[in-house]
Automatic annotation (TrEMBL):
Protein name: GTR7 protein
Record PROSITE patterns: MFS
Domain named Major facilitator superfamily (MFS) profile: residues: 1-150
Membrane-protein topology: Multi-pass membrane protein
GO annotations of cellular component type: plasma membrane
One GO-annotated biological process of the protein: dehydroascorbic acid transport
Location(s), subcellular: Membrane
Gene that this sequence comes from: Slc2a7
Species this chain originates from: Brachypteracias leptosomus
Organism superkingdom: Eukaryota
Primary location recorded for the protein, binned into one broad class: membrane
Length: 150
């Protein structure tokens, strides 16, 4: 999901991040349906059910070398503008992508000017209090949603 969010053009980033969540949910639903006793949920078929998750991992492992590094990673972390342009052309096709590169450069400048906070500093920072409450609420409810409880 992080890679998909980073490689998508800025105008499609929200859509792709939402789509990832939908597909994760569909994957959980598929796992529950396939795990029904009538399909692969019997004791004899449990090894096949558990091994089926390895299929998607294998597909990801095989296709990983085909995809380039994230353009923002190449530009911000590595400082390699030419490799970033090459990755953008490979991912988004030919065209003028200078606006996207400028946005990544602005992000790089913003990252260098902000200070990284330690965990205790985040907890003590009053301006981050509501974001922290929301994050804790979402993560707690996710743990109790039923998927993890089963």
């Amino acid at each position: 999901p992080q890679y998909v969010g980073e490689i998508s053009p800025k105008k499609l980033r929200g859509f792709t991040n939402s789509t990832v969540a939908v597909f994760l949910t569909l994957g959980k639903l598929t796992g529950q349906v396939v795990g029904l006793r009538e399909i692969l949920g019997s004791e004899a078929l449990w090894p096949w059910l558990l091994a089926s998750s390895g299929l998607s991992a294998l597909v990801q492992l095989v296709t990983l070398p085909v995809f380039p590094d994230s353009p923002s990673y190449l530009l911000i972390q590595k400082g390699n503008e030419e490799a970033s342009r090459k990755a953008i052309r490979k991912l988004w096709g030919e065209g003028d992508h200078q606006a996207e590169i400028d946005d990544i450069m602005k992000e790089k400048v913003a990252m260098t000017s902000t200070k990284s906070l330690r965990v205790l500093e985040v907890i003590k920072e009053r301006s981050l209090r509501w974001q922290l409450y929301i994050l804790l609420t979402v993560m707690t409810t996710l743990q109790l949603c039923g998927i993890n409880a089963v």
